[in-house]
Design brief:
The complex is a heterodimer of chains A (275) and B (517). Chain A has 275 residues and is an all-alpha fold. Chain A has helices at residues 6-28, 61-97, 99-114, 117-128, 132-143, 145-158, 162-169, 174-210, 221-229, 237-264, 266-269. Classes of the chains: A mainly alpha (275), B alpha+beta (517).
């Protein structure tokens, strides 16, 4: 489906590279990215084996980017899965049962939506003490509301369909109907949303690490940008390369999201014009 | 020794001023300096944090000033003597000193200041604990009588430790709410003029200062610039001429040092002697084992930290005392960087890879980078380090509640082991709730006795012997892992001369400073 979409293909290609780097990179760079390997502030391409130079403590910037890919992608993926795990059931229950349950759940959702998400994430991480677990939890907590609202909307429209009504008439349980009849049909917009959420999660993770709220034991792109920021005038490469890494992976996920949207949208999939 | 008399005569003072005259100090000019962060108050009798001392040290004065070697110099006292038994200190005050409002400064003000500071200044209270009575036989003489000889006593009269407070303004008032706190009045070379909160503090020359011909500078502007990068830029663009120690990130120091007409000095911190170390929890976990603690000392490359993180400034610490502190000795066991030896010691200690929690000091980039470097050193010898991220309150809480294995810190040492060193090693200082006492929980009756004896031993040679012994035992036991004697470089335009001349540097430096035209 995605094959017909060139920009989606580009996104997929970049993401594949990023995933490959995250999975196989540590095999090529077996030493810790925190190890001081050369003198500090070595510019790129001045020393064989250090194509991106070294940072303020003489650590290999290339190794940092490779290990950082693991953290960024992992945090992006897991926190998105976690927020889907919160948002989908909540939205489905609200949309299917309606009435007071719907009201209660949606007011609860709005409560989270009205709080600026980044500020909330900072507070949560600061309270729970910065670590990879607290970061994933904080990102999941601030990013589930759109999922819940989207799923609720889909469910609202699907539950009036005839095949759902038929299932009700044949006496199937509510949970069975939600699980077997409604959710599979509500999933395609959720998939599109999820791919964009991974991108947002990577950005959030980078921003938190940039502010020094990342896991101090894990090398991440945001941390590298934050740590290099103070020396940007002496050593641009320390911030620029991880910055490019963040840019490319977020761009890739956005391209994929758009591609998926085109592919999964039934009207567009049938060869209709793009709106 | 015959009559023991420390007398900084007027002759020496003349030598100092003629030396300056040879260089030809010029009168006039304005100095723009950075103050970071903005002080909460300038009333140094009530508030003693760093920036307050830095500005107020030029408004207020103490009885004595201290050379970079921490020898006493005349301040508001022009001469002083100590009785043979080391218990009576007699100070002669300078003639003709006046408060900024024109009232004369007399011995009554000294007596009042002692009472004032006992109520408001925790460190002064501690320093005065051996004081039996203080009397003023006449307008310009003050006599301190001690309960027993207390060697460090001559070192407690610096402006931040024992500033002179005007009696006629504070007597009979509630000190904390006295409106005069907003318009501080001292005897110093500069008078408070205005304070635009969040922007600048302006001091002007005291025309009737008691040292003739000083100060040379007409005005000082202390600029408040909250962002570290903006402070560097302010210097580069010429908005400020003086960056006191600690006001820019370390990583900016080499770049700023290379600018034209820029002078950098690490001097002017000898009195404070900031000494950094890792608290090691002596109570529990791997750090309770002496062999493990010694292994840490061998595992950490302190020279590299000095060169890379601190840009070559400072000195590798050899033990509990900084090298500027009295009775410092380098004749102690050495811990050079030796990972192989560290590994061997870890094996002896029976360390099996238990997790060790490490708290960096949350004071910005430099400290974070340093912690990352030490973590790498420790991981290299096989120590399983888990770095915990905290903010300042979190760090304070964890350290003072003993909830850590390894924690970075640095403390001031105030010139004498009895004032700023013993507190971190004697068992009477083990108490939850403070991050400045014996936080590591080291307890050794021999050390307790040595520090107790050292404080009151007399004469100095006896103290020297005691403290040499104490340093040797401590360095062998490694209650904490000493890192570096820190230096906070003061960056100035080279045309600002004579700014850093004493052991507290910029804190009282503007009295002697002048600008080359």
């Amino acid at each position: 489906m995605l094959v017909r979409n060139p920009s989606g293909m580009i996104g997929l290609a970049i993401l594949t590279i990023a995933v490959a780097v995250a999975v196989f990179g540590p095999l090529l760079f077996p030493t810790s990215p925190w190890r001081m390997v050369q003198r500090p502030f070595l510019p790129p391409l001045t020393m064989p084996g250090l194509p991106l130079g070294t940072d303020a403590l003489g650590r290999d910037v290339m190794a940092g980017i490779i290990y950082g890919a693991r953290v960024s992608l992992l945090v992006g993926l897991i926190s998105t899965l976690a927020s889907l795990a919160i948002g989908i059931p909540l939205g489905a229950v609200a949309g299917y049962f309606g009435g007071k349950i719907d009201d209660a759940l949606m007011r609860f959702t709005e409560f989270f939506q009205t709080v600026p998400s980044f500020a909330l994430a900072i507070v949560l991480v600061a309270i729970m003490q910065p670590s990879i677990v607290s970061m994933v939890a904080a990102i999941a907590v601030v990013s589930w509301p759109p999922v819940a609202r989207l799923v609720r909307g889909e469910v609202l429209s699907l539950r009036t369909r005839e095949y759902v009504q038929a299932a009700v008439v044949t006496g199937q349980t509510n949970w069975w109907i939600i699980w077997r009849e409604i959710l599979p049909n509500a999933l395609s917009p959720v998939i599109v949303l999820a791919s964009l959420m991974v991108a947002t999660a990577i950005l959030l993770e980078s921003s938190l690490s940039f502010l020094g709220l990342g896991d101090p034991n894990l090398m991440s792109w945001g941390y590298m940008v934050g740590a290099g920021r103070t020396v940007i005038r002496q050593a641009w490469w320390i911030t620029v390369f991880p910055g490019i890494a963040i840019l490319l992976s977020v761009l890739a996920l956005n391209l994929i999201g758009e591609g998926l949207n085109d592919a999964l949208n039934p009207r567009l999939a049938k060869g209709g014009r793009r709106a | 020794m015959s009559k023991r008399k420390i007398l900084m005569s007027l002759a020496t003072l003349c030598v100092l001023s003629t030396a300056a005259a040879a260089e030809g100090p010029k009168a006039g000019g304005v100095i723009n300096a950075v103050i970071q962060p903005e002080p909460p108050s300038l009333m140094v009798g009530l508030v003693q944090n760093g920036p307050t001392q830095m500005v107020a040290g030029n408004i207020y004065e103490g009885l004595l000033r201290y050379s970079p070697k921490l020898d006493p110099l005349p301040g508001l006292a022009e001469s002083w003597s100590v009785s043979e038994d080391g218990k009576v200190y007699t100070f002669k005050l300078v003639k003709g000193a006046t408060w900024h409002d024109g009232k004369p400064f007399t011995s009554a003000d000294v007596l009042f200041s002692i009472e004032f500071l006992k109520q408001t200044h925790a460190r002064a209270r501690g320093n005065l604990v051996q004081l039996d009575k203080v009397e003023a036989p006449d307008e310009s003489t003050v006599v301190f009588t001690l309960k027993q000889p207390f060697g460090p006593f001559i070192g407690i009269f610096e402006v931040g430790s024992l500033p002179m407070i005007p009696k006629h303004i504070y007597e009979g008032t509630d000190f904390k709410t006295n409106p005069a706190n907003n318009t501080p009045i001292g005897t110093g070379p500069f008078m408070f003029k205005e304070w635009q909160k969040g922007s600048f503090i302006r001091l002007v020359k005291n025309p009737s200062y008691h040292v003739k011909g000083k100060p040379n500078i007409d005005e000082i502007y202390w600029h408040v610039i909250p962002d570290a990068a903006a402070r560097s830029v302010a210097y580069e663009t010429g908005k400020v001429d003086v960056l006191p120690g600690g006001s820019v990130e370390n990583f900016d120091v080499p770049r700023l040092s290379k600018l034209k007409n820029t002078c950098v000095t690490g001097a002017g911190w000898e009195f404070f002697s900031p000494h950094s170390w890792l608290w090691l929890n002596n109570r529990a976990g791997p750090t309770a084992n002496k062999k493990f603690r010694q292994a840490l000392m061998f595992a950490i490359d302190r020279n590299m930290a000095k060169d890379v993180v601190w840009n070559g400034l400072g000195k590798v610490a050899t033990g509990p005392s900084g090298s500027a502190i009295k009775y410092y000795t380098s004749a102690v066991p050495k811990y050079d960087y030796d990972p192989a030896k560290a590994k061997a010691l870890l094996k002896e200690a029976g360390y099996k890879g238990e997790k060790v929690r490490m708290l960096p000091l949350p004071y910005g980039e430099t400290w974070q980078r340093w912690a990352e470097m030490v973590r790498q050193n420790l991981q290299d010898v096989g120590i399983n380090v888990d770095m915990i991220a905290t903010d300042v309150p979190g760090w304070n809480q964890k350290v003072s509640e003993w909830d850590y294995d390894i924690a970075f810190t640095y403390l001031y040492q105030y010139g004498d082991p009895a004032l700023g060193v013993g507190r971190n090693y004697v068992s009477s200082q083990i108490a939850k709730g403070s991050p400045f006492n014996n936080v590591e929980g080291y307890s050794n009756p021999e050390i307790d006795k040595l520090f107790a004896d050292g404080a009151v031993a007399f004469p100095d040679s006896a103290r020297e012997e005691i403290y040499a012994k104490a340093q040797k035992i401590l360095v062998e036991d490694v209650p904490v892992a000493w890192m570096l004697e820190l230096q906070f470089p003061t960056i100035t335009r080279c045309r600002v001369k004579n700014l850093v001349t004493t052991g507290i540097g910029v804190n009282d430096g503007f009295r002697d400073a002048w600008i080359e035209k």
